[in-house]
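Shall we go through a protein fold together, starting from nothing but its sequence? Label the sequence line and the structure token line clearly, so we can match residues to local backbone shapes. Would you write everything just below, so we can both look at the same thing?
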Amino acid sequence: MTTLLLIRRLQDNKKLEAIENGARRARLLRFRRESDTEERIAALEDEIGHLTLLCQSLAEICLDKKLLTAEALAGKMLELDALDGATDGKLAPRTRRIKARKPAKSAAKSSSH
């Protein structure tokens, strides 16, 4: 990959991230301003729809690029589902786990030379 292509991809990622952050802030502000229960439900449904679209997009990209298999994805979903103590097809909102990534052995060996 050329440096220019890499720079363009990073710029595109930053633009996408900025758009995503702006949209998220707008949804959260809308949610906080809503006083009517029906309006709050509509705001939450919008947020769920957005998150569903994001998750579906990420899953399909990973499957299309063969970064993982459907079985691996299903297995990870089951693993994460159990983290909150209830295997119920969802993750409690406050249950988060982000693993620290270990550097690949080949990268560690090449950096020591």
